[in-house]
Design a protein that fits this description.
Blueprint lengths: L19 H5 L40 E5 L20 E6 L5 E7 L8 E6 L4 H5 L6 E5 L2 E8 L6 E7 L2 E3 L5 H7 L2 H9 L3 E8 L5 H6 L18 H15 L4 E12 L2 E4 L12 E4 L4 E4 L5 E2 L3 H14 L2 E4 L2 E5 L2 E13 L5 E12 L6 H4 L4 H24 L14 H11 L3 E8 L6 H14 L12 H27 L33 H56 L14 H6 L2 H9 L4 H4 L7 H10 L2 E5 L11 H7 L2 E5 L21 H8 L2 E4 L8 H11 L1 H4 L2 E5 L5
Parallel strand pairs: 4-8, 4-19, 9-18, 9-19, 21-23
Antiparallel strand pairs: 1-2, 2-3, 3-8, 5-6, 6-7, 10-11, 10-14, 10-17, 12-13, 15-16, 17-18, 20-21, 22-23
Helix pairs in contact: 4-6, 6-7, 9-10, 12-13, 13-20
Bound molecules: adenosine-5'-triphosphate.
Length: 743
């Protein structure tokens, strides 16, 4: 392990002058994942120079960028361009040094659930130019790449082949463009939200994978160039990551990083290679249900400097070789991982901790050993590289085929696929950058890469956020308890079951006996197994009790609603019967025609005046003697004890109010027939008065309300009524109106 003092880099541009370390430690709560020796800085930090601003800060000429969306109309904003998932078509053009408009990027709409695939086409290099090589790549737009000049066309000619991707970076695209528009920024945002994200570069040797990820060779040489615009995606992502961390002031983040390479099928720790470069084992974790590298060194990264030092150290230690097509060819696949643990305050005093990560994977390039003229050690490396890429190819093509997706995927056939398994088909979010050379001499490799990339585009993933399972369980139980509690509260108040709704009013059997103690999630990790189990048990018991109570309340409400309905139906039946009876008695004034008590009238009077309708009506009506109905009929009516419900008319009370509503908030008034007034007054169940007869109103005016006594001898209809009265505490007061009784 190399230990060097000093700070190489500092905070990103646009920062508020606070060190990322401070933002990491802003929370007063120590992180449960924080390691005990966390105070020490990354041992990898090197020189004393710090980054003061973005690598592009020193760009002399301001960029002129023209962003176009579909149909060549200017796009609304830079944000709406291909950078983020789910974006639409678009293109970006930029004025070059000669003030000519040059297109640099085109994009097609991106779907949320598939691997995001972008293509970067590098410019022809000097070697290719010198040998007179020409470009076979054309850019029709909308994220398409057209490969021209493929042998095997009709009559021995050439045939073009068209491919579509999410984004295509044309040769003039800069390193910053790749960060802005590849979807990398979204990936970083998702990693902060707890997703496992992977960005990997794929392509033939010399196609620009390392250039895209980490920049050209020598960038991190003896004299570091922190402001260089040649910095690759990894460096820029680190800056963006810290910018985001600084913005999220309420979240506590802890970052760690590791860097490994797979060289000749051996996993080497690039941060701790040792003199013998002893390989590490790749094992299966039952708990995490994934492969991991045993004893891999992870470095705490409190500051941006620490992360960049990790990058620098890894680049220094990785295997590089020279062959015919690339003087600085990567001889291994490398995986740089940034682990992001965050703690965010959530509702109910709970802290949510999430574990996201970002893998930057620089694959070694596939090579035709004939072309690269590899021999000896380089040949062995090339064979291993090609073999593992072949396995990766199998996995990609199986995963992209809907029929084979659920069958065996040969992840175990190489270390690379074992470690990428999760990124390819798991619960992660993946960005694939396919790098190609435009040269005619590389046409078959280019076609291979484009086919690979087209297949990868079909792979579906199901991103999920990683949470501590114990916290997730407790949080979900807490949430459920809260939901059930508020649902019960609502039901109680709707049914008016318990006045005051306090626990003291609850029947003993419904009272929640166990209330789990307040959980300090900070101390959760310190809890012993049995304590934790007890805590979970308490939550589950409370949950269960609430669930039971909830269902009891639901069923009692249903019973009451059914009873109510029954009573109403019976009322209507009796009403009809009464009408029939009245028609026999030739228009008794007691049987009104059916126009409803007008809603307007109901609205125009308040509750007091409503009451007055009944109590202070036209007193003169008392003097009138009600018309008599034949005794035989009256007897029949008395036998049946015809009663009905009315709802106390309320201001603004709607007609046809739903049963549920009226059952929950209206008072029921019963009107009892008696010999003295000669029959019942009927008001239908929607609360409307079944009379337009002023005569009848006057009769009613002389009446008084009284609390009805349950009549045990009532016929069947009154059984329902009894139930209602038994449950009167649910519907509100049940009041009967008689001439004899006073309230
Ligand atoms: N977009 C680009 N613009 C300018 N130069 C580029 C670009 N892409 C690649 N190059 C240059 O081409 C050369 C080869 O690139 P690089 O080493 O990144 O290829 P590679 O795909 O990583 O190859 P290998 O698989 O052998 O490692 C480098 O000198 C690099 O700087």
């Amino acid at each position: 392990m190399v230990t060097r003092p000093g700070n190489l880099y500092k905070t990103p541009p646009g920062s508020r002058g606070t060190s990322p370390a401070r933002s990491l430690n802003r929370s007063t709560k120590p992180s449960p994942v924080q390691s005990p020796n966390r105070t020490s800085r990354s041992p990898l930090r090197t020189t004393s120079k710090k980054i003061q601003s973005s690598p592009d800060r020193q760009r002399k000429t301001p960029e002129k960028v023209l962003i176009r969306s579909r149909g060549n109309s200017p796009a609304k904003s830079r944000d709406s361009l291909p950078g983020s998932r789910g974006s639409d078509f678009g293109s970006i053009e930029r004025l070059d040094d000669d003030n000519n408009l040059q297109r640099i990027i085109t994009s097609y709409n991106q779907t949320e659930d598939n691997i995001n695939v972008v293509v970067r086409v590098r410019p022809l290099n000097n070697r290719e130019k010198k040998s007179g090589d020409t470009s076979v790549i054309q850019f029709p737009g909308n994220g398409q790449v057209l490969v021209d000049g493929i042998p095997g066309g009709p009559s021995g000619g050439q045939k073009p082949k068209l491919f579509s991707y999410n984004v295509v970076f044309e040769p003039a695209a800069t390193q910053e463009d790749v960060l802005q528009f590849s979807g990398m920024k979204r990936l970083i945002e998702m990693a902060l939200e707890g997703f496992r994200c992977t960005c990997f570069c794929y392509g033939q040797t010399g196609s620009g994978k390392t250039h895209t990820l980490t920049g050209p060779p020598g960038l991190f040489g003896v004299r570091p160039a922190p402001f260089s615009d040649k910095h690759g995606l990894v460096f820029r992502s680190f800056l963006y990551l810290f910018q985001l961390i600084q913005q999220k002031t309420d979240v506590h983040f802890v970052l760690k990083a590791s860097y490994l390479e797979i060289y000749n099928e051996k996993v080497i720790d690039l941060l701790n290679p040792g003199s013998a470069r002893k390989p590490l084992a790749v094992r299966w974790s039952k708990k995490a249900r994934g492969f991991f590298v045993e004893n891999l060194f992870t470095v705490d990264c409190e500051e941006l400097d620490d992360l960049i030092a990790v990058l620098e150290e890894g680049l220094r230690n990785r295997a590089i070789g020279k062959h015919n097509m690339n003087d600085f060819s990567s001889r291994s696949h490398t995986i740089l991982t940034v682990y992001i643990t965050s703690e965010e305050p959530a509702e109910g005093g709970v802290f949510l901790s999430r574990s996201g990560k970002i893998n930057f994977v620089d694959l070694a390039g596939s090579e035709m050993t004939k072309k690269t003229q590899s021999e000896g050690k380089t040949l062995e490396e090339a064979n291993n590289i090609n073999k593992s890429l072949m396995v990766l190819g199998y996995c990609i093509s199986s995963l992209s085929d809907s029929k084979r997706r659920n069958s065996h995927i040969p992840y175990r056939d190489s270390k690379l696929t074992k470690l990428l398994a999760d990124s390819l088909a798991g619960n992660g979010v993946t960005l694939m950058i396919a790098c190609i050379s435009p040269a005619r001499s590389n046409i078959s490799e280019t076609l291979n890469t484009l086919r690979y990339a087209a297949r990868a585009k079909k792979i579906r993933t199901k991103p999920i956020v990683l949470m501590d399972p114990r916290e997730a369980l407790i949080l979900s139980l807490k949430r459920e308890v809260n939901v059930l509690q508020s649902e019960n509260e609502h039901l109680r108040s709707a049914l008016n079951v318990y006045s005051g709704s306090t626990a003291g009013d609850l029947p003993t059997e419904r009272r929640i006996v166990v209330t789990p103690p307040h959980v300090d999630l900070e101390k959760l990790a310190e809890l012993e197994g049995p304590q934790l189990a007890e805590l979970v048990r308490l939550y589950m018991t409370e949950n269960e009790a609430l669930r039971r109570e909830n269902s009891e309340l639901y069923s009692s409400r249903e019973i009451l609603q059914r009873d109510h309905e029954l009573v109403c139906r019976e009322n209507e039946r009796l009403l009809k019967k009464l009408e029939e009876v009245n028609s026999v008695c030739c228009r008794s004034p007691l049987i009104p025609a059916r126009p409803a008590f007008s809603a307007e009238l109901l609205n125009s009077i308040d509750s007091e005046s409503t009451t007055n309708i009944w109590s202070d009506g036209d007193k003169s009506s008392h003097s009138r003697s009600p018309q008599q109905i034949p005794q035989s009929i009256q007897k029949e009516l008395d036998k049946r004890q015809i009663k009905t419900e009315i709802q106390t008319p309320r201001r603004g009370h709607r007609r046809n109010k739903s049963l549920e509503e009226s059952s929950s908030d209206s008072k029921v008034v019963r009107v009892k027939s008696s010999e003295s007034d000669g029959g019942p007054v009927l008001i239908n169940r929607s609360g409307t008065f079944d009379s337009n007869s002023p005569e009848r109103e006057r009769q009613l005016a002389g009446r008084r309300f009284s609390v009805a006594k349950p009549d045990e001898n009532e016929p069947s209809m009154n059984g329902a009524r009894r139930k209602l009265e038994k449950n009167s505490h649910i519907f509100g007061s049940v009041i009967s109106l008689t001439d004899e009784e006073d309230i």
